[in-house]
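Record type: monomer structure entry
Structure origin: computed from sequence
Chain ID: A
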Amino acid sequence: MQKKKFATLGGWSESGSFKHCYDRALPAPALLGAAFFNSSKPELYRIARDCLEPPVEISRQVFPWIEDEHTALIERQHANGLAKDIALHQFLACMLWFRRILIQDLAVIFTQNPHAAIFNLPPFNSSAFRNFAATSTAAIDAALEEARLAFQNLPQHLIASMQGALATQNLAFERERHAHQAQMQAMESQMGEMRSLLEVMAGAKRAKKAHGKSADLLP
């Protein structure tokens, strides 16, 4: 969906004075570094365990209400064209994605710590999950080897292109960060001027009040 449509649906306005105070660029190098990847070589980024495809019989037992809620949402939309719930649609999509990641991660964790408490709970105590976890190591090793060979044979111009795109994004982030800092400094300066003006006005008011009391005491 286009940015303009998001703004319309959310009732957002970009005409305010705080428009430039929001970060609009993701710091890709920082995100890669936080995920323990080499931020200077984005072409090496790969999640090997994403090759694991959780069995349907396991997936349907984790957040089992997702499919029913999605079906109900589709039926409401078909019955009423105005019954569109974008937030719910995106939430359900996010939960599907999270379910997949959860099962993948737990399969890897099971190979390292099979006695963890979570593996006493369904569906992670089932033979289907244990068989899935048992095959995960070989699948991940194969994916890592495939990625290593692919990166080894990756043309240098593609690597340079990816690094250039990352550098461009990083520069854009730095420009926006400096612009935000300048905006905040300008706002702080304006607030300081307003504070000084209020102090002067308050002082003048106190002086006027004191002068009035002195005049009342005169014979």
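Annotation 1: The CA atoms of residues 9 and 56 lie 35 Å apart.
Annotation 2: The chain has seven helices and no strands.
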